Amino acid sequence: MRHARITTSDAPTKGWRTVRRVAPYLWPADQPWVKRRVVFALMSLVVAKLIGVGTPFFYKAAVDTLAGEGQSAAWMLGAGAVGLTVVYGMARLMTVGFQQLRDVIFARVAQRALRALALKTFQHIHSMSMRYHITRKTGGLSRIIERGVKGVEFLLRFLLFSIGPLVLELTLIGIVLAVIFDIWYLVVVVAVIGTYVAFTFRVTEWRVRLRKEMNDQDTDANQKAIDSLLNFETVKYFGAERREASRYDAAMAGYEKAALQTSYSLAFLNFGQSLIITGGLVIVMVMAAMGVQSGSMTVGDFVMVNAYMIQITMPLNFLGTVYREIRQALVDMSEMFDLLEQKGDVEDKSGANVLKVTGAAIRLEAVDFGYDANRPILNGVTLDVPAGQTVAVVGPSGSGKSTIGRLLFRFYDVQAGRVLIDGQDVRDVTQESLHAAIGVVPQDTVLFNDTIGYNIGYGRAGATQSEIEEAARAAQIHDFIASLPEGYATQVGERGLKLSGGEKQRVGIARTLLKNPPILLLDEATSALDTQTEREIQGALARAAEGRTVIMIAHRLSTVANADRIVVLDQGVVVEEGTHSDLLARQGRYAALWQRQASEAEDEAA
């Protein structure tokens, strides 16, 4: 899914929306310590600016003393040139000191906001439905989050400590120039500032569009890189290294073009800003020089005007940088807030109850479902799984077997009918309690890039080492783990690639056993394994099923022969159900599938 581009018309709207979303992190109603820190930081800021604006007076007095011109205040002249120079240095030091104190006070506020927003984004992504995640590209999603979270601290810091302080400083300097010297100095300064700001904002808005394009290209290139690396084995199988490199290079070429345009526009912006600032500085200094020549101003006045113009120039140059970065931060965070505002397809109802499992009986009642409205998967499926029994769901590929498991776990909601657990509609209970009641062993167990012990222990938070080992024994993998040099501390590699398919499945079974759920969903848990490994895993699965309600979704019929009941699906409709022997005796769809697979097994053995 690609984010809509920000246009010149909607950029300000999105920018203000982002500011409104961030503002509560600066002034949270439930955390007074944050408010106190913000107030103290602002006080330090105001003191720093007042001292900074007054500092050039000491500079002027020192120059006038050295030049023998006595127009400065008597107490200043009494301090002498050396003393005034020392006072001038102390004033500059105090300005920097209060600025650093402001940063120290505010740092904790900014870091708290960054952490809170990062956590909120992370939790929101995990709360999104399966439909959302299968339509997203992980690389692009991670880059959007990364850029958005990085923009939080910058936006909080510079929105509060750059724009407001800059306005305060320019206002104070403008008043000083108008009162101490002449109103025309203020007119020139205001004209320069107005021209500078207008030029900076207009060019920066143009650069924002260029930067957005660069971000899009960066996201695309990053997504292609991560996608390729995640499919490393597939790339190798098909000798597609050059093909992948070409795809990545094409994406990077688009990024290169956008990045060059961004660099060129930055050079234009910097030169234009320097031209405006330098022109204003020259005009003001010429006016001051003429005043000195006419005798209406002292050399100290000339120096003070120069000092104030430099003080104006520095924050204006800073304004250009800050505005560019703030606009970029707003763009980056806007994408993240767009993500936060997306609603999931599956959400808890208001006042949803906790699932109460008494016997763990499952019932699908006249269920209709399709991933796409134009392609139905299940059509009026009714299925009963009595408490404590094992019911297998079999059928050809595309018949809707795995879809039943996804609806039970509520990755999706049914379009018609109901899914019930002990008479409770899964849509009426919290997802957390529903997920806690169901253990899933999928066809391909995906492991975290951590230790075997961590991956088994993931089944239940806070599990002890002895409980982890007990689950491993039940899954018939403890002896294998004990034989490894590092035992349970053995790293499994990304997605568990250092383990074989059978070893990964046993770790997955152990993890589910540690969770100890009343309902077990085996979603083609052995279909990706060879026959020998499958037989070994079957024993672990049989132990896992003891005392639980089990739904087995299977393609190989040999794995479900001992189920209490077998349900045969075909094109989303239940066509047969019964025990293995009953279905064989009927000589129907199940019997035909059984004979076909038996024949294939004989051919394979031969």
Highlighted features:
19 helices; six-stranded mixed sheet; 9% strand; Rossmann fold; disordered N terminus; 2 domains; alpha/beta; 10 strands; ABC transporter transmembrane region fold; 606 residues; four-stranded antiparallel sheet
Give your account of this protein's structure.
The chain has 606 residues and is of the alpha/beta class. The chain folds into two domains: 16-341, Up-down Bundle (ABC transporter transmembrane region fold), CATH 1.20.1560.10; 362-446 and 508-605, Rossmann fold (3-Layer(aba) Sandwich), CATH 3.40.50.300. It contains 19 helices and ten strands. It has helices at 11-22, 32-67, 74-78, 80-127, 130-135, 138-181, 183-230, 232-237, 241-294, 299-341, 401-408, 431-437, 452-457, 465-474, 478-483, 501-515, 531-545, 580-586, 589-605; strands at 362-369, 378-385, 390-394, 416-421, 424-425, 438-441, 519-523, 549-554, 565-570, 573-578. A six-stranded mixed sheet has the order 6-7-8-3-9-10, sandwiched between helices. The chain has a four-stranded antiparallel sheet with strand order 2-1-4-5, with helices on one face. Helix 6 (138-181) runs antiparallel to helix 7 and helix 7 (183-230) packs parallel to helix 10. The two termini are 49 Å apart.
Topology readout:
Layout: H1 11-22, H2 32-67, H3 74-78, H4 80-127, H5 130-135, H6 138-181, H7 183-230, H8 232-237, H9 241-294, H10 299-341, E1 362-369, E2 378-385, E3 390-394, H11 401-408, E4 416-421, E5 424-425, H12 431-437, E6 438-441, H13 452-457, H14 465-474, H15 478-483, H16 501-515, E7 519-523, H17 531-545, E8 549-554, E9 565-570, E10 573-578, H18 580-586, H19 589-605
Parallel strand pairs: 3-8, 3-9, 6-7, 7-8
Antiparallel strand pairs: 1-2, 1-4, 4-5, 9-10
Helix pairs in contact: 1-10, 2-4, 2-6, 2-10, 4-6, 6-7, 6-10, 7-9, 7-10, 9-10, 14-16, 16-17, 18-19
